[in-house]
Amino acid sequence: MTAVRTEHPDPTDTRLEDLRADVRGFLADELARGSYVPDVDSWMTGFDPGFSGRVAERGWLGLTVPTRYGGRGRSPLERFVVNEEMLAHGAPVAAHWIADRQMAPSILANGSEEQKQRYLPGISAGTTFFAIGMSEPDAGSDLAAVRTRAVDNGDSWTISGTKVWTTGAHLAHAMVVLARTDGQPADRQNGLSQFIVDLPHPDIEIRPLRSIDGQQHFNEVVFHDARVPASALLGVRGNGWTQVMSELAFERSGPERYLSTMPLLRAWSAHLAEAGATPGQRETLGILTARAWALRRMSLRVAAELTAGRKPDVLAAMVKDLGSTFEGDLVEAVRSSGRVGARRGGADPLARMLAQSVLHTPVFTLRGGTNEILRGIVARGLGVR
Amino acid sequence: MSEFTAELISATTSMIDRIGVDLQTPARGMDSAIWAQLGAAGFTTIGIPETAGGDGATLADVLAIVAVAARRGALTPLIEHTVLAHWLAASAGHTPTAATASAAVGHSCSVRSLDGATVLNGTVTDVAYAGDADTLVVLLPPDPGAEGSAVAIVAMSGPGVTVTAEVDPIGVSIGDLTFEDTPVLFHGAAPVSLDEFVRRGALAYAAATAAAAAAVHDHTLRYASERIQFGRPLAKFQAVQQRLAQLAALTTMMEIAVDTATAADDTPEDPYVATAAAKVVTAMSAQPVASAGHQIHGAIGTTSEHPLGRFTTSLWSWRDRHGSEGFWADALARRILDDGADVWDVVVGTRSAHDESPTTTNRSRQ
Fold first, then answer.
1. Which of A78, A247, A251, A256 is catalytic?
2. Model-level pTM greater than 0.90?
3. Beta carbons of A322 and B242 less than 8 Å apart
4. Which among A121, A373, B131, B210 would be 20 to 30 A from B239, CA to CA?
5. Which fold would CATH assign to domain A132-238?
6. Quick one: closest CA in B to A285, which residue?
7. Contacts of A84 in chain B (CB under 8 A)
8. Rounded to an integer, what distance in angstroms lies between the CA atom of residue A58 and that of residue A62?
9. In this complex, do B242 and A282 lie within 8 Å of one another by their Cβ atoms?
10. Is residue A251 annotated as part of the catalytic site, yes or no?
11. CA B216, CA B202: separation in Å to the nearest integer?
12. What is the per-residue pLDDT across A259-270, written as a single tens digit (0 to 9) for each?
């Protein structure tokens, strides 16, 4: 079986619980002074540089980044606690989310010394935000089909092509780009490389893509022969596919893969506690609670595996498949057993979060690799593919 | 896992494999030869606290044996006899000599003195291995307003015992018992609450359910890799691969949930929440797992002689023992809606967030 036995992660020794209490205190203060309105899926929609800056001031960004790069040199479990509290309380963490979750570990693993010194302090200070350029119009689930090209000019690279579904590119300071540097499209995974490109850039056009919730989260990013310095290459030329895959292990198993709609469950539960609950509603609440409990333990197991230096990509894919399915199931369970209709922008937080959840549910099982792709990864791990 | 646990698992595995398991469904009954061997090896009386005369083996050790037996399809009353009856009797300071004991909660039972003897009256229901056991250990919860549980032990062959035994979907005896002035072999106070008893039973059956699910996973993966249709193994079809992946994700979740709940006493996990959540997710995953196993096996998996049926009927039987997912979901809802815990704190599920609460005692409806 894939559930390798490891030391039981100890997420709750006193130090972690003290940290949890600190984060809750901070969030309570922020809420009290009206700096944010709790929302579902806040890691994708809650873009608030001011909030991110205050989180950084408390020392909660770049937690696992070494102190010599402006980080805090703390454990992945401490990072886990900070992030899960932010998500459960619906805090606006979108501005720093991708930089902190994905780019910091990626740059630490693959970046040059110059890149580490250039980007990591800003990520830890909550002043450098990132976007991810992976998908393309003709390369969605089939990521190896990317057609964006980077041509080597010796002292620079010229990038041409189009990226889509680029969350927050219009607000980010930099973006990581997967492009073909060598060979032909038929070479698939071979010949791909990663670059870090600073934004804005005169030859990079960022066009908004409005979503069905009426907001702009995604962009289409067009590279019109955009010239970037030779130092923009991230990691090893031609090693892009391998680098991206190990990055995705971080992207796929974190608390945002099962907690995106936790604020809705908390709001509904508070409503039930006040208004009274039917036996059916009690059972629904209990079942959703148990599923979230189990997913959290699976996610902690992945975190422990990553910490131990292993590659839990199959377990991470399972967490995201089950977790993102749960996020949508939660929405439907609350909707069908409650008596609250969905209303966009409504005054009632429950109705508003329900509307936002319904509109965001399709994306839960698409982003970070569709669930069908993830099951393919699991099938490969089972040895049948 | 300790070295001792690993040795127990290895010894149990070779014992079961040496004797062999008849996997036809419905089962002809419990695996008496395996049960006798486990007894002779001393494995059926372990897991009792040292303070009660035990040998130092933990509940986790016993559950490791339960899982090995379940994964091989061996039908033994390890949970009824070892995990529950022996532990309950030992907690009351008694060491039963039964070859096969079962355990039950006597909600409607009472003891009284009759002609200088202590006798038991009342009914107990849903007693697994009712037709196999020679002894029954009954937990007598306190009357409303009173405190402290008691234990009564009776011989199944004793006077005034009426057994109405049928079989569960596996083919194992399950029944209801009525006592009319049945003399007790032992009666005494026990420091075990109703909640504690039900929780222990629920955790044990969650472990057994997860192990049966793992067996369905293993059998199904092997079958899909071997069975050729349309000129290639079933496992080469993407639709089948997707289903296998979902099956594996569920069995992995069940295993991690049970693993966490079993270790809860030695970690900051709230043991009550952990057991409740593990029982919910194992019970509610039982049918999706059984369904995937049968769908991929095709019609052959539904035949009496095929091994799959042993494990799917186990899933369908065990998910309801000591509380279905509905029962335990309500236990979690009680924490949130009646005791005022934040749902998020229950998900985090640490003892510091909500200390082991005596207020839930006597409120179970099992």
1. A251
2. yes
3. no
4. B210
5. Butyryl-CoA Dehydrogenase, subunit A; domain 2 (2.40.110)
6. B333
7. 348
8. 11
9. no
10. yes
11. 21
12. 999 999 999 999
